[in-house]
Structures are given as C-alpha cells and as structure tokens.
Amino acid sequence: MGQTLTEKILDDHLVEGELETGEEIGIEIDQVLTQDTTGTMVWLQFEAMGLDEVQTEIAAQYCDHQTYQFDFKNTDDHRFLRSAAGKYGAHFSRPGNGICHNVHRENFAAPGKTLLGSDSHTPTPGGLGELAIGAGGIDVTVAMGGAPYYIEMPEIVNVRLEGELPEWATAKDVILELLRRLSVKGGVGKILEYTGPGVETLTAPERMTITNMGTELGATTSIFPTDEQTEDYLERVGRGDEYVELQPDEDAEYDDEIVVDLSDLEPLIAKPSMPDNVVPVSEVEGEDVDQVIVGSCTNGGYEDILPVAKMLEDRQTSLETETIVAPGSKQASEMLAREGWVAEMMAAGVNFSEATCGACIGIGHVPASDSVSLRTFNRNFEGRSGIEDDNVYLCSPEVAAAAALEGEITDPRNLDDVEAPGVELPDEYDGSKTDLIAPDEAVDDELIKGPNIGDVPIRDELGSDIEGEALLKMEDNITTDHIIPATQDILMYRSNVPKLSEFTLSRVDDTFADRALEADGGFLVAGENYGQGSSREHAALCPMYLGIEGVLAQSFARIHRANLFNFGIVPLTIDEDTYESIDQGDEIEIVDDVYEAVTSGQEEFTVRVNDEEYTATLDASERERSILAAGGKLSWTRDQAEDGG
Ligand code: F3S
User: Fewest CB atoms less than 10 Å from the CB: which of 166, 320, 469, 481?
Assistant: First the structure.
C-alpha cells in the first residue's frame, strides 16, 4: 500500500513505534521554535535539566507576543531569552522583528523537515511541506535536548481541493469554510493532508494561511505536498536549494476524505466569538465596524497586506472606523515601505504598527466597549482582544479592507470601482536580517536573569490518594485564554509562576486562585474540549502550583492534555451523566490507589462524588503514565538521565 505524505515524513523521522492510528510513536525533531510567552519557561527548564547545548538542526527563539517594553519585566524577559539563545546555541529574533511563524517561514521552514514549537500555530509551515506540530514548552525543551517527541499517531484526512478560487474569495475563505463545516473540534486527533488539483492554484503563502488555521480545527497539524509553487516561494526567500519534491503515493489510503471545491467559495466571515461561527459576509453586510485590524500570523505576510494597500490606494478609510495594519514580520514592513505602500496606506488613514502579535492577545489596540472589531486573525475567543464584551469578527484582508473603506461589513464584490487585487508575491523577499541573531553572532554567553525571573516549580511524585473539592465546574470549550489570559497585565508575570498563578481561571471565577491555595489540593471539572486554544503550558503549570491534582473533563484538547501530564495533573475523562452529577463544591475522591493504578496501566478509575460512585477513564500511553507518576516531565526527564535512559 502506498503512503500518504504525512506517513513518508513520519517514517523518515520515526525512532519508536509503528505508524498505526492511535499507537504512540516517537519522532526525531529537526527544528524547534519558541516565543517570548512560552520561551522563558522553556529555557528555565532547559537549564534545570542541566543540558549544555541545543541538539536540533535549528532552534529559534522569537520575541513576538509582548514586544512593547513598557514594563521592565518584559524587557528583562527579552534580555533573558537573548542570553539563553546565546548560551545554548539558538537563533534569536529580536522584539519587533516579527511573529514567530512569519519569521520562521521566511528563514527556516523547509519541506520534509519536522518542527516542534511551543506555540499552537506552529503548523503554519505545513504549507511548505514541513511536518510542524505545536506542543507544550517542556516538550520543546526535551526535543531541543535531542530526545524524540512522542505523539499518538493521528488519523490522516485527505482534504481534496478542486477548482480554483473565484475573484474576491481567498485562502482565508478555504479554512473558514472548513471551520464552518467541521467546527473547532473537527480536526482533533487528525492531520489534514491537502491534495487534489486545487492545490497547484494556491501559492505557498496562501497554503500557509490554511495550515496556520488548521489549529482552529483542533488538528494536530496540516500539510500540503510540494510543487512548483513551493519551489518558487523558497527561491523568492533565497532558499531555493532547500526545495525537495514531496507527494503522497497515488495509492495512498486516508482515514477520511473531505472535498472542497474552491470555485464554490465566496467571502466568508467568522462571527463573535468562535472561529467556527462562520457565515457568508453577505449575511452580515451593513453592520457598523468600529475597528479593522490587518495582520497576525495568519494574514500578516507581505502578500496579505499588499492587496489591502492596493484597495486603499488613493482612497480614504471611513472616519468612523479605526484601521490598523500590523505586518507579521519586519521584513514585510520594510519591503512594503521601500515600495511606497506604507505611505499609501498611511495617506488613506491607516495606523501602521510594528510587527507583533500584540492585538491578537489584547496587547494594544483593545477595542472600545461594546464595539465591533473586524480582524484578519485566527481567533476571536471572547475577551481575547483585551475587553470582555468584545465583538470580534474574523475575515480575509480583502473583506477587512472593504470594511475599512465603507465603515461597515461589506461584501467586497459589492464595492464600487475597486478591483479585486489578486495574489502577488514579490520578486524577492529582500528585507534586512539585522534583527535575527544567528548562534555564531550571539552577544551573550551567560544567562541574564532579572528580578522577575523565578524558578521552575516542580511537583513531587504522584501520591496514592487524591481527594478534594470540585473547586470549579466549567462548561464546554474552555480555552487556555480562560485558564491563564495572555493580556499584558498578566503576561508580564510569565516567568514568575507564583505571581502569575493568582490570575488562574480568574476570567471564570475571580475567587478561584485563593480558594485553590487555601484548599491545598482539589479538582477542576469541565465539559468537552477542555483547554482548547494556545499551547500555553502555564495553563497547566499554574493550576499545578495552586495544588490542583486532577481534572475531570468530558474531553481534552490535545496540547493541553499533554501539558497536564507534563505537570503531574491527572486528566480523567468522564461521561456526560457524571459531568451533570458533579456540582461545584462537591467532595471528590479517587477510590483507587492512584500511583498504583497509573503505573499499572489501569484505564478505569472509580471516582466517588459525595457518596455516589462513577467511572472515569485515564487513556494514556505507558510513557505518559510514567511521566504522571514522576510528578511531571521535568522530574521524569531527570530520572531518565540519572538512570542512563
Ligand atoms: Fe501571535 Fe496571535 Fe499568531 S498571538 S502567534 S499572531 S495567533
């Protein structure tokens, strides 16, 4: 039987296990990336493990989420990250140089390689044929030390693209269409592999918009085959020699197939406050728009902003609408500036921002209360913009530009005298590289830790008894933004776990952190898809610091589930009846000897809630069980090193 493209790359990197759905496999990692929110813990853990030097072909530390240095704590973090990259041999991308995925795709992403990143949109270079997976920081730390990355072999779904995008429909509409059909849970446990005649009609950056937002489907990753479009892009970024042709075998078999006819697509928009709340733009046309932002790792490339610049050229944006353009990389800004497009946009009324994640996580450009913000981003979870009652819509750059011109949601097909700009790549991506410091140019060789940089908390070995209160009962689709928000006032404590923990789940219940500390142990209870969203390991680390020992949920999002194991919190799956039977404040006890049950491979656990008994399931590999038993991955890795394992 032939192989899918995913299987070919996995086979090339396989160090343990077999490529059978549901089996745990260990794969070798060629490249790692980390960013400023997750990076400080990555390097503190790397230091705690006593490792000397990065072992992967490429390791890159980006500073993108919080680049505004208006508090010494952020600047301290950036300086620490630069020093860690210098000491251990990673590339360092300075604050303002751009968003990790944009800078990575321009400089390092390559077909056939594996990439592990401590950011949930790490799958972005799947559009170039790289197998790129988002993971928790500790997984990245361990991979950076040369160990394999372990994952349950996902199902491989063939997303067959047919036809060609009509005028005004874009790559963003392809992924919004998939979200409309499949929902934010539709990709869980799956790798989406794109095939079909429609693939060759999409440029590599368009493909990367699609693979970027595969994360919103919950997919492990998404990948495209490589072809002339891939080679063309690599040549334009000056890395044509890294091109490798990669295609699935003709007789490859997939677990499932989805067909999207590109010619049927029209401009789409995700309404507040979930990326799968998708409707045609025409359905919400006419709604007033207070703010438009073009940018992010989804649509922040040169080729995403150029169409906006062309649509705004010699025109005036609406006076009632604030329009912001924040490119994904400084290279894109520099190129647009050299070609005069920045001036054109400014003349049209655009507020031009530095290349940063910023507004995507509520750092800067927070919308006015009870207002409408239209963004080209990938997420619109409630409150993520920095204000609780936000109304954030997600759309393509073209739909965003149409709204900027008209001051209301507008189907760009209805614009008078504005031509569809189409997709255009520059001859050469030729921005300067002064803000990307290679390991051999490192400016530091020792770690520099400011006062806000704390130690990494480590949990003791798993005990035999776990009992305590159901400290918080939550609904479906709780995001890591709910667990630890990434807004500026909170994010600046990312390297200071005791302080950061005070904000744990404060968006759900602001008494939670105090109650958890006082209870000194206890449980979280949640519905489906608990922990979806970003890869933020603080969402497990802070509950661990507060003493949480178990989470009972109907289902878990992939990265967060791994993070719970990595920080010694027992993730148990419960059915709907059990969920309904538990009230906040109930006393919960795991009846089994937990250490014994976890290490012996027991799957069903008896959970006593008040006086009733229920069954909960621990679906975990042998390796995950030993990590949990050790109290988390840091202790486990150290134990392994001591045992010579
Ligand atoms: Fe940054 Fe938002 Fe992407 S936080 S990495 S631009 S999802």
Answer: 320
**Secondary structure class of 505 (helix, strand, coil):** coil
Cα separation, 173 vs 194, in Å, equals 15
| Separation of CA 357 and ligand 1 centre (Å) | 5
Q: Are 7 and 156 in contact (CB under 8 A)?
A: yes
Please provide residue 246's backbone torsions phi and psi, each rounded to the nearest 5 degrees: -135, 120
The DSSP bridge partners found for residue 261 are 162
Note the pLDDT of residue 572.
Answer: 98
Alpha carbon 584 to chain centroid distance? 30
Q: Is the peptide bond preceding residue 273 cis, with omega within 30 degrees of 0?
A: yes
pLDDT of residue 642: 76
CA 191/CA 212 separation, integer angstroms:
13
Cα atoms in the 13 Å half-sphere on the side-chain side of 33: 29
Taking residue 48's Cβ as centre, other Cβ atoms within 10 Å add up to 17
pLDDT of residue 71: 83
Domains defined for the chain, CATH in brackets: 5-264 (3.30.499.10), 268-412 (3.30.499.10), 466-642 (3.20.19.10)
pLDDT number for residue 488? 76
Mean pLDDT of 454-470: 93
Query: What is the spatial distance between Cα 431 and Cα 292, in angstroms, rounded to a whole number?
Result: 26
Provide the β-strand partners of residue 553. 526, 573
Q: Output phi, psi for 150, to 5 deg.
A: -105, 140
Residue 641 has pLDDT above 80, yes or no: no
Torsion of CA 285, 290, 294, 299, to 10 degrees: -50
What 3-state class would DSSP assign to 583?
coil
Exposure string for 389-406, b = 16+ CB within 10 A, e = fewer: ebbbbbbbbbbbbbbbbb
Q: Which atom of ligand 1 is nearest to the CA of 300?
A: 6
Rg of the chain over CA atoms, in angstroms?
24
Phi, psi at 192, each rounded to 5° = -95, 115
Task: Report pLDDT digits (tens) over 295-316.
Answer: 999 999 999 999 999 999 999 9
Burial class (CB within 10 angstroms; exposed 0-12, middle 13-18, buried 19+) of 247: middle
The pLDDT of residue 629 is above 80: yes
361 C-beta closer than 6 A to ligand 1: yes
Best residue among 357, 481, 494 to mutate for probing ligand 1's pocket (most ligand atoms within 8 Å of CB) is 357
pLDDT-based confidence at 22, cuts 50/70/90?
very high
Residue whose CA is at the smallest distance from ligand 1 atom 5:
297
- The string of pLDDT tens digits covering residues 593-625 is 999 999 999 999 999 998 899 999 999 999 999
Give the mean model confidence (pLDDT) for residues 538-553. 96
Q: Average pLDDT in the 160-183 region?
A: 98
Q: Give the Å distance between the CA of 7 and the centre of ligand 1.
A: 28
Q: Indicate the burial class of 622 (C-beta count within 10 angstroms; 0-12, 13-18, 19 or more).
A: exposed
Question: What CA–CA distances, in Å, run from 543 to 97, 124, 583?
Answer: 33, 29, 19
Contact 16, 148 (CB under 8 A): yes
- The closest-lying atom of ligand 1 relative to the alpha carbon of residue 486 is 4
Q: Hey, which of 33, 63, 65, 324 would you mutate to test ligand 1's pocket, going by the most ligand atoms within 8 Å of its Cβ?
A: 65
CA distance 385 to 367: 7
Q: What is the pLDDT of residues 262-291, one digit of tens each?
A: 999 999 999 999 999 999 999 999 999 999
Q: How far is CA 621 from the centre of its chain?
A: 24
